[in-house]
Specification:
Strand content: 15-25%
Length: 300
């Protein structure tokens, strides 16, 4: 959202200007839950209500399904008393969902409800949907502004130093790594494998490992690794156990997918159309347990 030169007008990033007395805005959250969603909802509402004097802001319930009346729940009217303290709570006041996008129906709903500014808070699928909605709006020559707010704790957005939710994810993951390290250290040749979020980027795994300081191996999607050979994970792990008798492995969920091609032969997709990744954590546990490395692997 951009501030126009006139205090009573709302200007979208695309340059569309809406006199605020004519604005009926709506906010929708889609995809997985992310720390900070309620903060974003609250901030959007407070700025619209108090700065721009927008009279009505609707909350779309349970993701894009809320834009299809026969499928989703009806929207709610946001008011100061409802949103004033939601930043102290987790999750999203509006609810979320994944699922296929029926864009013409979405735009029909926006027209029927007289919504002319829609804020979409979500990840890749949500923003692809927002672009499709914008294209349909342009095709119909409607004056409706779509403002996409990227949501990902993976911190994998270009030109954004830290996406909201990332710091929270790292701080929680750091404590999990500490627990895994202590459990591995408590067993002779104990190995803890901790799998963290990160489909295509390893920022959470890398930053949590740095913050924790006890990780011995950090595996991320950006850097391929081998299991076998002198420089492979298994041999490196064996050397680590000979020296210290315990090890902590941190792996991002999208790491090593090339090693799991057999498991991916029949690809499955989630409700948003994303490929379901094979489980690198299970794979590592089973490969380590099946080698001559004398260890009891603990998976967290």
């Amino acid at each position: 959202m951009m501030r126009s030169r006139h205090p009573w007008r709302l200007q979208t990033p695309a340059g569309d200007i809406f006199p605020t007395q004519d604005v009926r805005a709506a906010i929708v959250t889609c995809g997985g839950i992310c720390p900070g969603l309620n903060d974003v909802i609250r901030s959007i509402y407070m700025e619209l209500h108090y700065l721009y004097r927008v009279k009505e802001v609707l909350g779309i319930r349970y993701g894009y399904s809320g834009l299809v009346p026969r499928v989703g729940q009806p929207p709610i009217s946001l008011i100061p008393d409802l949103v004033s303290n939601i930043h102290r709570e987790g999750g999203t006041l509006l609810g979320s969902s994944r699922g296929p996008r029926t864009v013409p129906r979405f735009v029909d709903f926006l027209e029927r409800m007289r919504i002319n500014v829609l804020f979409t808070i979500g990840g890749d699928g949500t923003q692809r949907g927002a672009l499709d909605i914008a294209d349909e709006i342009e095709h119909r020559k409607l004056k409706i502004g779509i403002i996409g707010i990227p949501k990902t704790i993976d911190n994998d957005i270009s030109f954004v130093e830290r996406s909201f939710g990332f710091n929270t994810a790292v701080s929680i993951a750091k404590d999990v790594l500490g627990t895994g390290h202590e459990e591995a250290r408590g067993a002779y040749n104990g190995i803890a494998v901790v799998k963290l979020m990160g489909r295509h980027s390893g920022f959470i795994a890398a930053m949590a490992a740095v913050a924790n300081g006890d990780a011995n191996f950090v595996l991320v999607p950006e850097i391929p690794f081998d299991m076998e050979g002198e420089r492979g994970l298994l041999k490196s792990l064996e050397r680590r156990l000979e020296q210290r008798e315990h090890a902590l492995i941190v792996v991002a969920e999208g790491a090593g997918q090339s090693l799991l091609e057999e498991e991916q032969s029949g690809k499955q997709f989630d409700a948003s159309g994303n490929v379901r990744l094979a489980d690198i954590g299970i794979y590592l546990r089973d490969r380590i347990a099946g080698t001559s490395v004398p260890a009891g692997t603990r998976r967290r």
